[in-house]
Amino acid sequence: MDHLLAHIKTRKNKRIFKLVSDQSLFDTVEVDLNACIPYDPDHNLDVDSWFKIEGFSQKNFCIEILKKNYDAKDYDDLVKDNFSKIAYLFSVQGDDFYFQKITPSLFVKRKTLVFGEAAELEKSQTRLVINALPDAVYFKVADTLIFRNLATISSIFKGIDELYKEATKLEVEQFLDESFIELSNNYSVEKVSKPNRKRIGLAMKTLEDMSADDKTNMLDYIDGYCEQKLNYDKQNKKFEISTDEDLKLLVYGIEQRFYTTLFGNEKRIANSVKTM
To answer: In this structure, are 135 and 196 located in the same domain?
Structure first.
């Protein structure tokens, strides 16, 4: 039997309650888990794509209800006084769990005109809007969570935002101190944007795995694509970084985001990549 449950905002230990029984909240999400993208904060999803986290029940941010066998008898019905306290919904549909975050804007109270055999004015009642697609789905048999936006589900799975790794101030300082970087125009760690902090976190891991020869070839590769946008001192092997845009191009180069089309020889930047 399918059930709709709610997690409410309260200081009490009991926070999960039943709302509706024997009904599904969402249409079944048919997805090929092999085609889903392992979460990468710098990847832009296609319209029909999902991120995935495999082995989800073993993660620190997995909620308790997903770690045990679900039994509806363990949960009481939610009383009317607590409807406005709902933080998120999850619909138990077969073996799977469908999640939707609830925000105040989803509570709607208005009069409506209903057209049946005759027009009828329906009195104002509080309604909760359900999205066409869930914010996340947990497939229990595969032990895999899929989702589209990490920020949306971070209030459901506390601590999951650790996957969105920004470089710390110390790490940014260490990166800007790399031998191939020359800062100018008073550009400093304080001026590095949040998106670039995220990119630096990824680039530092890439640099760690590079050999000395790869790093040398990387500088020539970046200069080959950015000679009109980045100043490069070939003798001293240093890129001049004076703006946040300069830094973004440099990091994109470290991640090998520049490429030339086979037909037409057009130079391009890939703003997201997927390993084949």
So the answer is: no
